[in-house]
Specification:
CATH topology of the largest domain in chain B: TIM Barrel
Largest sheet of chain B: 6 strands, parallel
Radius of gyration of chain A: 23 Å
Structural class of chain A: alpha/beta
Order of helices and strands of chain B: HEEEHEHEHEHHEHEHHHEHHHEHHH
Mean pLDDT of chain A: 86
Mean pLDDT of chain B: 87
CATH class of the largest domain in chain B: Alpha Beta
Shape of chain B: globular
Helix content of chain B: 25-40%
Strand order of the largest sheet of chain A: 4-5-6-7-8
Low-confidence stretches of chain A: 1-6, 267-292
CATH superfamily of the largest domain in chain B: Aldolase class I
Bound molecules: iron/sulfur cluster
Order of helices and strands of chain A: HEHEEHHHHEEHEEEHHH
Largest sheet of chain A: 5 strands, mixed
Largest interface: A-B, 65 and 60 residues
Helix content of chain A: 40-55%
Number of domains of chain A: 3
Oligomer: heterodimer
Strand content of chain B: 5-15%
Structural class of chain B: alpha/beta
Distance between the termini of chain B: 45 Å
Number of strands of chain B: 10
Strand order of the largest sheet of chain B: 3-4-5-6-7-8
Shape of chain A: elongated
């Protein structure tokens, strides 16, 4: 930080910057902090502001040019990977992300690329912890997204991730599904990713109305549920282990975790194994208790 | 028969196969084709037994003409039989893949008529998948012992990974428990696959783009633990030689679970899950931590300690090498500290270049010190309140396993050591591959 004027001393420990919630908005706020040699306690999204006693508040307007300059600065002095990390942390749902990002950039832009490997520095460690959490969420989504085939041939998935990760998983699914159009709708963040076999893009949406599922969908879902139940070995039942690998908060979006009595298209012929009954037991419980 | 019923029978029959990984090959998407593979593998769900489900794991057929004593599908069992048509199987795989249920297919089979006929059926299903359905995802096929080389070659260029079950840690046990199989019928094809994979590498230097590669994700195998008398010492020596001579990517262990009663099989009530777990830990030490098998286990103590993991055990036996000073010891030694993984070791190595690390710093690095704290110093200091003494370290590390939570597992475990319907072999020699097939 530059020299502190009396103005800064007045603001010190009290200033909070507000931005509009966009990535460019956050970078603009960071630009403003550097430009005015301020040292705010936090940078938060306008609508999340919790006003407190003795707070000084400044709203920073989003300015694409300034955001571009911060971006260029990060890439120049910390490398492209660091910029990607910053983008990734921005998608975190953690309410600390504004200040964690600010401290990280204040610290590392001053010291250069090498500071990125100072993993024991608390400022870097906080940033890395948020980064790890977002990356974990990305991986969870690659694992647990379930598409349903709609009547119009589009595959649709609804998710509720802990971070705003749809923009970071679209390229994986677009490359992989390739000849198959799909939409991933993140109900929690009101964002949808759409792929039309040529390219993918994002749309903000509170809700999407989609056509009915095609007849084949129920059939495949029943086959998958049957497979899931059958493949478990009863003598090795280990529900704790399953919950550790597949946290309960995902179960609501996983068709194989739907309790038996609520399943569609499951003929009587398939007798659930004891393990499957166990599994059913568990998911029933999960419906009653709030998702963790 | 309805497809749903077939799937129930053929998934149920395949559930004892343990290798459900999709790792080992990174193949990016191809325009106009469905699918890609990720080298780290992606688990799509976890079954009620806590195992990861990555692939559609099924048998082509469970109408087996062999009579292996330990297997549900043996011909003398009275169980419902089913066989997929190649097209049914291909469509099922595609249907699941499109919905992100799976990374691909893990196809095994009972011996339908004879090994070659079975393999032809498998090849046909996979050919449909790769060709007609343009499937570019992961495929693991279990080859049938006794399959001809021509068919192995055909199968090998269609799949990513191939495996042959060695089934037991000694050929004596294999012959007794699987009368239709022999060391020869298993090892021959394994060698053939190894040589085929080697040819890939040679080919690479001569041709620029090779479209078809033979078994690009390598070869693996699986053996049952606890149905035959071999010791952990023998098992681990066998896996070490499987890695070195047959260049396997993975050796899988499967705790013996009684599904049939046969005088040759041991009477057990519980699968030796803890023993299986310890063997996997030892296997990791060999594959990722540069441990030699002789450092993990020896002839005098031929069983892994059920109470403590093999890395801790090694450290306690080499206590003179500890405590390890986190800020000084070379990377290789960081890897040998119990509780510190490959990622943790490299984070420590990176961070300590920037500053001297204290205990609090390790948690910032996301390194768990639950076990490690007994074996390290940070800047000359021991962890608070811990005694650096092998006996008390052992006590503190084993209390977790001794407690109620593991009690049941452990009881079954301890009573199992040394029990088997087969006569115990007098020899405790390491099972090198040479002696395996002799
Ligand atoms: S060959 Fe043996 S192990 Fe394989 S399915 Fe047939 S009976 Fe079972």
């Amino acid at each position: 930080m530059g020299e502190l004027t009396s103005d800064h001393l007045l603001n010190d420990g009290r200033l909070t910057c507000l931005y509009d919630g966009s990535f460019e908005g956050l970078l603009s706020a960071i630009f403003w902090v550097f430009e005015h040699k301020e040292n705010p306690v936090d940078i938060v999204i306008e609508e999340n502001l919790q006003s407190g006693f003795d707070q000084v508040i400044t709203t920073i307007d989003t300015d694409i040019k300034k955001a571009e300059r911060v971006k260029a600065g990060i890439i120049r002095s910390l490398g492209y990977q660091a910029y990607k990390d910053v983008r990734c942390v921005f998608l975190s749902d953690d309410e600390r992300k504004g200040r964690v990002m600010l401290r990280f950039l204040q610290y590392s832009l001053k010291r250069g690329a090498r500071s990125r490997s100072d993993l024991a520095e608390p400022i870097i460690a906080d940033f890395d912890a948020l980064l790890r959490a977002v990356n974990r969420e990305i991986h969870y989504q690659l694992q647990f997204i379930r598409f349903s085939e709609l009547r119009n041939g589009i595959f649709f998935a609804k998710i509720h991730p802990k971070a705003n990760v749809v923009p970071l998983i679209m390229s994986h699914f677009a490359a992989r599904l390739n000849i198959q159009p799909f939409m991933i709708f993140d109900e929690k963040h009101a964002l949808a990713g759409i792929y039309d076999c040529q390219r993918w893009w994002m749309v903000e949406a509170e809700a999407v109305s989609v056509p009915d599922q095609c007849a084949r969908q129920d059939e495949y879902q029943a086959l998958w549920q049957t497979f899931y139940d059958t493949i478990a070995i009863e003598e090795r039942a280990n529900l704790t282990c399953r919950r550790n690998f597949m946290p309960k908060r995902f179960w609501g979006d996983l068709c194989e975790m739907i309790p038996h009595e609520l399943r569609k298209g499951q003929p009587q012929t398939a007798t659930p194994t004891a393990c499957a009954r166990l599994a059913g037991e568990q998911s029933r419980k999960s419906l009653q208790s709030p998702l963790n | 028969m309805e497809l749903l019923d077939k799937l129930t029978i053929l998934a149920d029959a395949a559930k004892y196969d343990v290798a459900c990984t999709s790792s080992g090959v990174n193949r990016s998407a191809v325009k106009g084709k469905l699918g890609s593979t990720a080298s780290a593998g992606i688990c799509h769900t976890f079954s009620a037994d806590g195992r990861c489900i990555t692939l559609l794991k099924v048998l082509m057929s469970n109408a087996c003409s062999y009579d292996c004593t330990y297997c549900v599908n043996r011909r003398s069992n009275d169980v419902p039989r089913a066989t997929f048509t190649p097209r049914e199987l291909a469509e099922l795989t595609i249907g699941f893949y499109r919905r992100n249920y799976i990374e691909g297919l893990f196809l095994s089979s009972g011996v339908l008529r004879n090994p070659d006929y079975t393999t032809e059926q498998m090849c046909e299903a996979i050919r449909l998948l790769r060709g007609e359905y343009g499937f570019n995802g992961y495929i693991h096929a279990k080859a049938i012992p006794g399959t001809s080389k021509e068919l192995l070659t055909r199968l090998g260029v269609l799949v990513d990974r191939m495996s042959l079950n060695i089934e037991f840690p000694s050929e004596t046990s294999l012959r007794q428990l699987a009368p239709d199989k022999s060391g020869q019928t298993v090892l021959e094809p394994m060698r053939f696959v190894r040589d085929g994979i080697k040819d890939n590498i040679r080919d690479k230097t001569t041709s620029i783009v090779k479209r078809t590669r033979f078994v690009p994700a390598g070869q693996s195998t699986q053996m049952i633990v606890g149905a035959s008398p071999e010791s952990d010492y023998q098992i681990l020596n066998l896996s070490a030689s499987l890695y070195s001579t047959l260049e396997l990517k993975r050796v899988f262990f499967s705790a013996y679970l009684p599904v049939n009663s046969d005088p040759l099989l041991p009477q057990v009530t519980k699968a030796p899950l803890l023993r299986e777990h310890r063997l996997y830990q030892a296997d990791w030490l060999m594959r990722f931590y540069h441990f030699d098998v002789n450092e993990i286990i020896d002839e005098q103590n031929p069983s892994l300690d059920p109470l403590i993991d093999p890395k801790c055990n090694w450290a306690l036996n080499h206590i003179d090498l500890f405590p390890a000073e986190i800020n000084k010891v070379p990377y290789e030694m960081l890897l040998r500290i119990p509780g510190i993984g490959v990622k943790g070791a490299s984070r420590i190595a990176k961070a300590r270049r920037e500053r001297t690390l204290a205990f609090e710093d390790l948690s910032r690095l996301n390194v768990s010190i639950r076990r490690a704290r007994h074996f390290i110093t940070c800047n000359g200091r021991f962890a608070d309140g811990l005694l650096f003494d092998p006996a008390s370290i052992y006590d503190s590390l084993t209390c977790e396993v001794r407690n109620r939570h593991y009690k049941g597992v452990l009881d079954g475990q301890l009573s199992l050591f040394g029990e088997s319907g087969l006569t115990r072999e007098a020899s405790t020699q390491p099972l090198e591959l040479a002696s395996w097939a002799s």
